[in-house]
What we know:
The complex is a heterodimer.
Chain A: H1 2-19, H2 28-38, H3 44-56, H4 61-103, H5 108-136, H6 140-155, H7 160-172
Helix pairs in contact in A: 1-4, 3-4, 6-7
Chain B: H1 17-30, H2 36-46, H3 52-64, H4 69-112, H5 116-140, H6 151-163, H7 168-191
Amino acid sequence: MDSAVLLALSLNFMMISLLSVGGGGATIPEMHRNAVDVHGWMSGAQFAELYALAQAAPGPTTTMFASLIGWKAAGPWGALVAVSSILAPSCLLTYFGNRTWDRYRETRWREIVQAGLVPVTVGLMFAAAWLVTSGAVHGWPTLAIAALSAAAMIMTRWNPLWMIAAGAVAGLLGWV
Amino acid sequence: MNAERDSPLPSPPFVSLSRLFFAFMQIGISGFGSTVVYAHRVVVEDWRWMSNEEFLDLWSVCQMLPGPNVVNWSVAAGSRLRGGPGAVVAVLGLVIAPVCIALALGVLYARYGEVPAVHAALRGIAAAGAGLLIATAVKMAQTPRVYSWMAGFSVLAFVSVGVLRWSLVLALAALIPLSIAGAWWRAQRVRA
């Protein structure tokens, strides 16, 4: 029974690992289908609660989410199996992909491909900043916190965790 | 910052595996919401293990592969610095502490449930985190590769994904061939 759950976790998350192109957010519907509809490891409400927790934890959200789903489904071993299954396929692909890519480091076409990719990457970073900011900023107080933390990050060498801590304190003081 | 264009991949500095592990642990444990902020700060700005250009090169390739970008980037950066063992150490360092924290939060949450102060603090954290992401985008944009009309592709990527909310796969499929063609055309012009 338990090993059947572990096997299901492993297969599901290996599949999700290979499907999660460009940010894991796109795989959340698939995780929901597996955990709630197919296997019934949790209710839809529990799924949403665990996702909020995964966002509250540091680290890549989908990986954290996988650990919580695995834990919920099959305890500590479930967490371990879910995390290693969601990481292994994409990590192996990246490792061998980059090795191959590096082999062509002196070629002119590689330089051209990189020169084409980088501007798109920079634009996507601004898109991510925009999407996250529009989700996090509601009114002047949160706008001020976001602007101050951006300014501090650009103009000082302070550890970014201080900006995060200041945001938490502002929240606790009831400013936001 | 603009140097080293002739040799895009200078041989990396020597980094011990334990230092690599703890640097990536710092990245993982700090990365609330957007780990890219800390990845750039720790590896490019603090330790100077790679230039902004190298960082962008690796990130660009990793972004097109499946999996969380920061995990893929850790594999690539660890491998660039210390080969296969470096890749393993970097990923373990990145995820171990956050997984423990996520599970601890799960246990705490199951026990204490809804506390209003927690939600207020999370709102403040989210706003500060958004500011950090803006700052990192601004820093990453400081590369000669976008100091030309190629910046138009940055704008298109921003508008399609950020404003129009296209799926990333669709946006990349549309933009990457065009931007590579643009880079090729530009390289021809520079040569001529």
